Amino acid sequence: MAVAFQRKKPHINVGTIGHVDHGKTTLTAAITKVQAEKGFANFLEYGAIDKAPEERKRGITISSAHIEYETENRHYSHVDCPGHADYIKNMITGAANMDGAIIVVAASDGQMPQTREHLLLARQVGVQKIVVFVNKVDAVEDPEMLELVEMEMRELLSTYGFEGDETPIIMGSALCALEGRRPELGVEKINELLKAVDTWIPEPVRDLDKPFLMSVEEVFSIQGRGTVASGRVERGVLKKDSDVELVGKGPTPIKSKITDIETFKKSCDESRAGDNSGLLLRGVKREDVKRGMVITKPGTVTAHKKFLVSMYVLTKEEGGRHTGFHENYRPQIYIRTAGESPSLKTTLLENKSGLLTSRIDEAAAFHWPEGTADPSKMIMPGDNVEMVCDINNPLALEPGQRFNVREGGR
Ligand code: GDP
Ligand code: MG
After folding, report:
1. Ligand 1 mean position, distance from CA 5 (Å)
2. pLDDT tens by residue, 342-393
3. Long-range contact pairs involving 178-182 (C-beta distance under 8 Å, separation at least 24)
4. Options 11, 84, 257, 367, the catalytic residue
5. Does ligand 1 come within 6 angstroms of the Cβ of 136?
6. What is the per-residue pLDDT across 75-126, written as a single tens digit (0 to 9) for each?
7. Which residue's alpha carbon is at the smallest distance from atom 11 of ligand 1?
8. What is this structure's pTM?
9. How far apart are CA 316 and CA 331, in angstroms?
10. Which atom of ligand 1 is nearest to the CA of 177?
């Protein structure tokens, strides 16, 4: 039955992660089946979600499926990827933007290398809450095995910075749910899982509710009025006469007050996330404001010259480097509007990732974090690494800030 949804429920982005063959796609199909019976989804068969085999045959690489379903309280968009590499790319580039994730672990195998890698990835991209589905319980005789898997998963979650002791763990069988067998392991466990997802994964703070931030693209002075900085508002709402700080480039933030706001060339009382606005800054000289600075609610953002990054290195096939590199690598880094030129912006925005918006004047330098066992280790195309990045002038940065690095146009 096709259902016309009214989008009145809060929307949450989730996804299945975990080791290959542990049952992510089967679980995704099972969720749509169970919710379809309540009129909350369209049932999608396994093959409709994981189109990988046939699409690969035709030479098309697919990287993820976005599935929709509802519960009583929420509307979900759910991402399921066919392979490990697809998770890395989709999660790091933000294409698979998850507010929370369901990690699937087969009771018959327990945690495996990709279980751990996906937890690390989830942490790297800022996923706060995880729900565990221990799958294939139908294929396990020994209840001690289940206890062991649960214990190990709690430990693993804690290791990766999640709340291991409190995280809901549901044990069941996606296949039983999909095939309508053994409801005590099938449909009932899917219902339990969705209840856990509904309650454990919080509704994300919307951009409008976050503290105001606009990255400065252009600066000009208006005769008799003062300095105006313009750009696209990334988040929050700013009212006329608010106090602000200009953060970045210099060692300390510059304090100011917004005495007028122009959005789409009209004077108005407020500026909101998504607007292109010009902000008239009281008591600030034109030469003090630089592209790449951010204008924020005071005290909400700080500037940094050294930070830990998670970086996926594109392969040659993806348009990246052909060879590896060592630490002390110095490519150019792109964060928000820093150093951007209008022509550069055009080319960058055409990039599929949609994340490239800017350039910092100086090169960045990448190093292995302190205590790395083998600092002479090479970083190869296709690697997902954590490194320390240094830049010359401080920039407004916060955990989860996206960036891109380029080198010779790659
Ligand atoms: P993915 O790679 O994590 O997406 O795993 P799939 O969903 O493709 O499942 C891998 C294999 O495990 C398939 O052959 C499924 O039929 C099987 N499978 C999935 N869930 C269960 C389950 O609950 N019990 C059993 N016995 N097998 C399952
Ligand atoms: Mg799959």
Report:
1. 30
2. 333 333 333 333 333 334 455 789 999 999 889 999 999 989 899 999 998 8
3. 178/26, 178/29, 178/30, 178/33, 178/46, 182/138
4. 84
5. yes
6. 998 999 988 888 887 777 666 778 999 999 999 999 999 999 899 889 878 8
7. 21
8. 0.73
9. 16
10. 23
